[in-house]
Amino acid sequence: MFKRISVQHLTTGMYIYEMCGPWISHPFWRSAFLLTDASDLQRLRKSKVTEVWIDPARGKDIAPGVPCVVWDPQQTSDPDRTPPTAKPQARPLAAIDTAPTSLGKELHTAMALCEQSRDAMLDMFSEARMGRAIGMDMAENLVNEITGSVLRSPDALLSVARLKTADNYTYMHSVAVSGLMVALARKLGHDEAAVRRAGMAGLLHDLGKAHMDPAILNKPGQLTDAEFAHIKGHPRAAYDLLCGSSDMDATVLDACLHHHERLDGGGYPDGLGGDEISLLARMTAICDVYDAITSDRPYKKGWPPSESLRRMAEWTGTHLDKRLFETFVKTVGIYPVGSLVRLQSERLAVVSEPSVKSLTAPRVVVFYCTQSQRNLSPQLVDLSQPGQDRIVCQEDPGEWPFTHLETLWRKGAAATA
Q: Where is the HD-GYP domain (predicted)?
């Protein structure tokens, strides 16, 4: 016998059999579990889920007088008492709106998706640390939602996911790499199934870090040889963990195991080189490196996107696949959203949206004059239009005292919604 109750009547010790609502409405990797942690109870009450099904046979029952809907599987189901499905209420990709839209319109959805995805990944890493098998249903749900957002407007999710902190890096890195993989696969012309495999590889590639020593993983200084050897074990740990999932795709498993291999054979864990490294693993390597070096980490500040792309270009041929990297640059743009740039007019601007016409002429929000050293009234400018200013270089935001760049590019994107 199952009971549907309000989340306000939930208490620790109850067994949640199913959340009432789509997966994206709640922050948990699992859809069914024994509620033992008070912090999980608070997270659930703050989510968009208003009701859950509980199984009193596997946990605490409700107190007398608490309103509920009862469903007994031994009796004829009442159409007004929708029984639990025992399955996560996922939205298949076919049911997700993928019609292209503007960056401004997609931003709000992307922000909510990143928040939910971060919590889901945190929960999944916790499950992995405890040695529990990873169910692929929830991973597929997350990849579907990420894919839908990227198809609607690729720059929205990628821009928001880049705004991670050192504290949530591990979880948001997985989400960001998944989005980058979906965008790259689309740019390469892959079919829907291949795009979803790419998203899954990006989402799961670092799951092995759940078994790494947090003190080493987050060490602010240089690693010793022994510490680096420990960290190099995370691809194999991910592979071993995911092999326990019966429906795991073999190419995704391979990408999780070999995304740190190098074309010159100098990578790990197996020292593969050249064509020995699969296409999906080579794609994952590029997306993983880009998000890692553009992000703030406990031991170093992230590089600006343009500097990151310049460095990565130097690593092609030895570390990264040159052809795939060239396509990747077209995917993220030479000046990704949020980049601080200097214009020929000696004004500074922040990139608010790529241009469909030119990689070097995005839409920007001009806001500062370097000659007079004063703030300007923010102005949205499409550099791809005839007679407009042009970018001469990208600036390092760390060398300027600006703290409002994120607000500027978001307002600029919203203005084109």
A: 148-344
